[in-house]
Amino acid sequence: MKRATAADVARAAGVSRTTVSYVLNDTPHQQIPDVTRQRVLEAAERLSYSPSAAARALVRGRSDVILFVFPAEVTLADWGRRVLSQMSRRFAQEGFTLLAHTGRFGRERIDDVWSTIVPAAVLCITVEPEQARAMRAAGVPLVLPLYGGDDDAQAVAMDSERAVVMLQLQTLLDAGHERIAFASLDSAHRLTTASREVLLPEVAAALGIEQPPHHVFPEDPEAAAARLQALVDAGYTAICAINDHVAGVVLAGARQAGITVPDRVAVIGAGDQVLSAVTQPALTTVVGDPDGLAEALVEVVTRRINHLPAPDELPSPRVHLIRRGSV
């Protein structure tokens, strides 16, 4: 069956194609009588007409796509996938489609993706200045890094990270621990590690404690056991892991080394991943509010797209502790 065109809608409604365009694109400052507007809408529905996305992008200079780019080596945990899902739902309510894209920021990638999609905005984990310039040169009007920028999107993301680290450390302090080490893994988690490591001095100062040293744990259980044993021998009694994956590696190292948790060392994670409840012992973890974070990010991005001022006050991130057996 042949797809209906704007000309078909115009003929069925007895109006010009320009009027059809004004009505279906909800063009402002056009005096279209309500009866005419209704006739166009009814004709479009009767013919199952949907405007061409390419045509709309040509008229507006952008599409209705929000492109979210993150490096291929980054694995989204359960919490991250929930944020992405909620952002997709909320952007849809605002008339946008969220498209997740993994890959590296090569110039060819920029040419192939940005110029083809012409997104309304690009959300990215982090971006170098020259990468942002290249995207804007390719026609992207809005580039918003979640980390390493200086705008509202970055503020929302970092506020959430700060609240997680604050509650992790406060929980360990309340349990009587004074010697705390911050633990991460290798480059697969470097973005989360970098953002939270940047926040450590600020959070430690707010809590009135010495900044926890950062230790990179190997994923091999025997090597992790050796790293943990060295920390315990040095007097550390608690490990603050950047996420539950890292905490799981620390717990595996503790079992390998015969270090009892939480008697000799406490371990706290972040994210409440599925396996956190079935580790030995079950993992105490801090989890943020994915729905609230998604809501705040969507509000910031849509306001920027529509050239509206930033919200007077960004919502405070909500985080809570899931107390299990590792602290």
UniProtKB/TrEMBL annotation:
Matches recorded under SUPFAM superfamilies: lambda repressor-like DNA-binding domains, Periplasmic binding protein-like I
Pfam families: LacI, Peripla_BP_3
Keyword terms: DNA-binding, Transcription, Transcription regulation
Start and end residues of each HTH lacI-type domain: 4-60
Alphabetized GO MF terms: DNA-binding transcription factor activity; transcription cis-regulatory region binding
Coiled-coil parts of chain: none
Family annotation (PROSITE patterns): HTH_LACI_2 (PS50932)
PANTHER family: LACI-RELATED TRANSCRIPTIONAL REPRESSOR, LACTOSE OPERON REPRESSOR
Name of the protein in its database record: LacI family DNA-binding transcriptional regulator
Organism: Nocardioides agri
